[in-house]
Amino acid sequence: MKKKKSKKKTQNKQKNNYIEKTAFANLEKTSNSETIPKRSSSGIPKYVADRMARRIFFTAGIPTILGMSVFVVSYIIVTRNIAEIPPSSTIAISALFFLLGLAGLSFGILSASWDKEPGSFFGIENIPMNIQRAKAAFKPATQNFEDKN
What we know:
With 149 residues, the chain is mainly α. It has 5 helices and no strands. 8% of the residues are buried.
């Protein structure tokens, strides 16, 4: 048998539903009328980011892969008794490739041209200008404003 609900509980439930419906309706009205203007982004343009990614792949990706493959090659040489390689030299050679990859990461970012045209193959001429851009990005906004005046 079904239990009878009291009138008081059903009235309170209906009242709560009505309050929730009107609250959400008012919320939708106010949110639609307020439009927030989009800020212009001063980030890195897509063509520059693509250029940086390509340079990073070659200057940092290849040495990093070589740094990981040193362990595999060393393992194969030692297990097949081709040569006796001390572990310290394996680690040193691997570390050298990883440091080369770290330098390549910095070079890939700093040597990318910010012009629409790609620029030169190595991009060495862009490094001083990109270092200045990086320094200016870390200055507070007031210092940037004072430098321009």
